[in-house]
């Protein structure tokens, strides 16, 4: 019978959809470590052994100790690593550059349709790489509007016109909406799966818009910086709010998004309030 901590860990792994780690039987782990022969080290949560997968790839195998905790330590084993505002800003700008290249830098325009944090990989220098092109569509460079049947993407990041053509035609600007929602999530330190995220009182884009409109203190959490660059944060928010406008015609192209992100904040105006959220 599973203890409460095990149940929490099980639920945590299952929530991560395609990111869920592959499960191995104990016999598989024993075989790949040659009966735990080569011990590499010992950590706070268990011993680490050298292992080899069937394809010959070398791996480190951690055998967890039995724990009486509630599973929080396992789920947040590396949770003390936080980003500064400068790092977040550089990541956001890097993603904008990548999207601008997909939309204008290739011989054929590439529409991603799945821009979200899970699909942004960071290297050792925190340089972002856009991944997972499973839903992407190609479009001639001289064209921007495409025909599409059905809805594609992840709830919370889907542009309104993608799930209902009543809002407009699907184009490369649908990626702009997803980018805006993702940057707002980065700024707010929230995830779109937070239980209270979509309530009328706490829906984050509306909450942060009202703060910007009234020029109130943002009181954002989740980022560790003693000297927060308020101007840079405000710029990221304003650009994001322009990106998530309900009418796709009001979405700036990624080339303009990049200009706004790298330009002077004095040239940015507060956009109309985005009144709609993605389907839930």
UniProtKB/TrEMBL annotation:
SUPFAM superfamilies: Protein kinase-like (PK-like) (SSF56112)
PROSITE patterns: PROTEIN_KINASE_ATP, PROTEIN_KINASE_DOM
Location relative to the cell: Membrane
InterPro entries found in the cross-reference section: Kinase-like_dom_sf, LRK10/LRL21-25-like, Prot_kinase_dom, Protein_kinase_ATP_BS
Protein name, as recorded: Protein kinase domain-containing protein
GO terms under cellular component: membrane
An example molecular function term from Gene Ontology annotations: protein serine/threonine kinase activity
Keyword annotations: ATP-binding, Glycoprotein, Kinase, Membrane, Nucleotide-binding, Serine/threonine-protein kinase, Signal, Transferase, Transmembrane, Transmembrane helix
Main location class: membrane
Binding site for ATP: 62
Topology class, membrane: Single-pass type I membrane protein
Keyword Ubl conjugation in annotation: no
Keyword Transmembrane helix found: yes
Residue ranges annotated for the Protein kinase domain, each copy included: 1-276
Pfam families given in the database record: Pkinase
């Amino acid at each position: 019978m599973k203890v409460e901590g095990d149940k929490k860990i099980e639920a945590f792994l299952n929530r991560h959809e395609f990111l869920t780690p592959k499960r191995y039987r104990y016999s598989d782990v024993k075989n790949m470590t040659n009966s735990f022969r080569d011990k590499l080290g010992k950590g706070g949560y268990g011993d680490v052994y050298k292992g080899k997968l069937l394809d010959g790839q070398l791996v480190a195998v951690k055998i967890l100790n039995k724990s009486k905790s509630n599973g929080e330590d396992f789920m947040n084993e590396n949770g003390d690593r936080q980003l500064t505002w400068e790092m977040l800003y550089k990541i956001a700008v890097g993603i904008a550059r990548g999207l601008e290249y997909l939309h204008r830098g290739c011989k054929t325009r590439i529409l991603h349709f799945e821009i979200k944090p899970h699909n942004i990989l960071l290297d050792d220098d925190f340089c972002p790489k856009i991944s997972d092109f499973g839903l992407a569509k190609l479009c001639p460079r001289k064209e921007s509007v495409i025909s599409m049947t059905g809805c594609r993407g992840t709830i919370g990041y889907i542009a309104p016109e993608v799930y209902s053509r009543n809002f407009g035609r699907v184009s490369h600007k649908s990626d702009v909406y997803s980018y805006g929602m993702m940057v707002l999530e980065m700024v707010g330190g929230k995830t779109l799966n937070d239980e209270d995220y979509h309530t009328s009182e706490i829906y984050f884009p509306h909450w942060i818009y009202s703060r910007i409109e009234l020029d109130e203190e943002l009181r954002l959490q989740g980022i560790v910086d003693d000297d927060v660059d308020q101007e840079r944060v405000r710029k990221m928010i304003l650009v994001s709010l322009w990106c998530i406008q309900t009418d796709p015609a009001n979405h700036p192209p990624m080339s303009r998004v990049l200009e706004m992100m790298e330009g002077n904040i004095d040239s940015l105006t507060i956009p109309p309030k985005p009144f709609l959220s993605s389907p839930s």
